Amino acid sequence: MMEKLSFNDTIQLNNGVKMPRHGFGVYKLADENRFRTSLEVAAEAGYRLFDTAMFYHNEAYLGNFLASSGMKREDYFVTTKVWNTDQGYDNTLRAFETSLKKLQLDQLDLYLVHWPKQEPFFDTWRALERLYDQGLIRAIGVSNFEAHHLERLMTEANVLPAVDQVETHPHFSNRLLHRYLEELHIAHQAWSPLGRGPLLTSEPLLQEIGDKYGKTPAQVVLRWHLQNNVAIIPKSETPERIRENASIYDFALTGQEIRAIDRLNRGERVSNAPDVIYVRTEPDFQ
């Protein structure tokens, strides 16, 4: 368990690349003016990992922001993802070229397969491996992959995924997958780390712990992730919440509090199960 953490902490991925542990997600930031305002607040607050995807339709907004931000390229980390309809070897190569152009980058930090898809399963990964070997991507990984998807992928993969970005929050803690990823030295990154719906208001425990430290339930949950060795990419359009989500490094949960939050797990997702996508149904979220 980690106790001494800072906002500038990084995770060393299994290929040696260092990835910020605490990033900023831009899912559903669809208006460019609001996008820029949110990113300005996030950058000012210290966020340096920005997570987008072809499916979010805002890669170009992120590229415009970064190009005009004044930040040095080596000071920020960009993740994007290949969407389901762009999977397959040639399609993935074309999709990557499009994403890189929209992001106005010469090299991407992390490229993920957004969801496991049955038919082009290996072809998509072979395309990522080619781009990685060419030095166009610093690290490659997956999103929404369960253990059995990873096991299947590794029967033909030459490069082990560096990251698996999966739904994780107190109502869906994903602890079995977490332990499996730790065994493989694949970083566990949580999307929807705060859940959706009533999680933050329906669990008195989160408020009780927050009151003890002068923190909100959201801050308690984000701290819980970090102390469980899970990377996070919270998202918000509200400036005060963007700053609030970054202010989780001046307190630490006890082991008893972490275990109490662990017990909130209900196995309840806010999105489709990956195997629903695996048989070619489109996801509801993320």
Summed up, what is this model?
The protein is an alpha/beta fold and 286 residues long.
What does this structure look like?
With 286 residues, the protein is of the alpha/beta class. The protein has one domain (19-265): TIM Barrel (Alpha-Beta Barrel), CATH 3.20.20. 40% of the residues lie in helices and 15% in strands. The protein has helices spanning 32-45, 59-68, 89-103, 121-133, 147-153, 175-184, 199-202, 204-213, 217-227, 239-246, 255-262, 274-278, and strands at residues 10-12, 18-20, 24-25, 49-51, 77-82, 108-113, 137-143, 163-167, 187-191, 231-232. Strands 3-4-5-6-7-8-9-10 form an 8-stranded parallel β-sheet. β8 (163-167), α6 and β9 (187-191) form a beta-alpha-beta unit. The mean pLDDT is 95.
- Rg estimate, integer Å: 18 Å
* Average pLDDT rating: 95
Spans with pLDDT under 50 lasting ≥5 residues?
A: none
Overall geometric form: globular
CATH 4th-level superfamily: NADP-dependent oxidoreductase domain
* CATH fold field value: TIM Barrel
Write the layout of secondary structure elements.
Layout: E1 10-12, E2 18-20, E3 24-25, H1 32-45, E4 49-51, H2 59-68, E5 77-82, H3 89-103, E6 108-113, H4 121-133, E7 137-143, H5 147-153, E8 163-167, H6 175-184, E9 187-191, H7 199-202, H8 204-213, H9 217-227, E10 231-232, H10 239-246, H11 255-262, H12 274-278
Parallel strand pairs: 3-4, 4-5, 5-6, 6-7, 7-8, 8-9, 9-10
Antiparallel strand pairs: 1-2
Helix pairs in contact: 1-10, 2-3, 3-4, 8-9
Descriptors for this entry?
single chain, globular, alpha/beta, 12 helices, two-stranded antiparallel ribbon, TIM Barrel, eight-stranded parallel sheet, about 290 residues, about 15% strand, 10 strands
